[in-house]
Amino acid sequence: xxxxxxxxxxxxxxxxxxxxxxxxxxxxxxxxAARAGGARPRxxxxxxxxxxxxxxxxxxxxxxxxxxxxxxxIQAMLGIPxxxxxxxxxxxxxxxxxGTAALADxxxxxxxxxxxxxxxxxxAGWLGRRSDQRVDGAARPIRFALGSARPLVETLAWGFLAxxxxxxxxxLVGSSLVSGYGQALTAETFTLAHYHNALFAHEGIRSAFATxxxxxxxxxxxxxxxxxxxxxxxxxxxxxxxxxxxxxxxxAYALPGIIIGIAMILFFLRPIGGxxxxxxxxxxxxxxxxxxLALALRPVLGGFAQLNRNLDEAAQVAGAGLxxxxxxxVLPMLSPSVAAGAILVFMSALNEIQVSILLVTxxxxxxxxxIIFLEEAGSSTLAAAVGCLMLAxxxxxxxxxxxxxxxxxxxxxxxxD
Length: 417
Description:
By secondary structure, the chain is mainly α. It has helices spanning 2-24, 28-36, 41-69, 72-79, 87-98, 103-129, 150-176, 193-201, 203-236, 240-254, 257-268, 281-306, 310-317, 322-351, 367-376, 380-401. The two termini are 33 Å apart. The model has no long low-confidence stretch (mean pLDDT 83).
């Protein structure tokens, strides 16, 4: 039950953001008309709000389901010590025990995991399509007067935030500042040695971070122009092949990352053209490109949808080629969306675990699996220090993204209102 609780708390923001976006699109006029007609709040909720918001609720449930079933960190950290097997940890343990000799069994387990994921997404999609979609948007969002219940609601909201964010983060920081795991943080036990070890002394951590940073920057550098090219074709030159590519990118992102890792092992296990990528950083980069293409593409598609194509067509009539139009017209207007996609890919790839957990070797380590390995080796305080450093880096990137957030299409950055 601890795994279930943590997966629920971890994925609660996904559901919240999806449902919140749906509720903000509901028409206030329709609800106010029902109130004026004498409908009580419970009846308005049951007959208007829930039917219209069912699609967003199901979409949030689908996102949470996909994220939970593919979450390796929580299932491994809690499930393996407690001997609670799950499909994703079973794949990991089989690979650790038998290596590539177990690829047939791993492929079967991966197909089973993929089938469960697709079935869950299909069920959520079917339930969402049953919702009433006759109203498409709202000129102004709904506002409910809480009245005397406002202090209670605010207390519950802040209490939930403290329980799910402040307490875990404070525990992580506290563990990183004591000399031994389980000690109380006092003046005698306080130490910064773990941070010094992580930043300057531990060669494995520095190498893993450098590898993750290099792979992440390479993925961003490749996916940014690819997403612009795909976005141009998908929005302005649609066709069956491009739609298939878009569907494939969305499926690669929706499937658990460990399945992408197994697919990469099966594809690159044998040398291609006399060159072996298995066991190198290049196979991890290939997995990143496959898994995070959809993440880079979504903001770009939103940006293309808001661009006026008349400028592009006028330049084409004047004789400008495709690359000239992209360079001089499209990219200057689309740059905030491209940057948003780059930030999303950077934050996701730098901290990921499940995509590379089966692909890392002694020659190619990334920082996410390194934290797992430190915890398994008993270096919990050092793992906590590395986790705090990565948390600070992600927070800095989120704050930096807010600097140009107003120039982005609505909904591109989930943490920006």
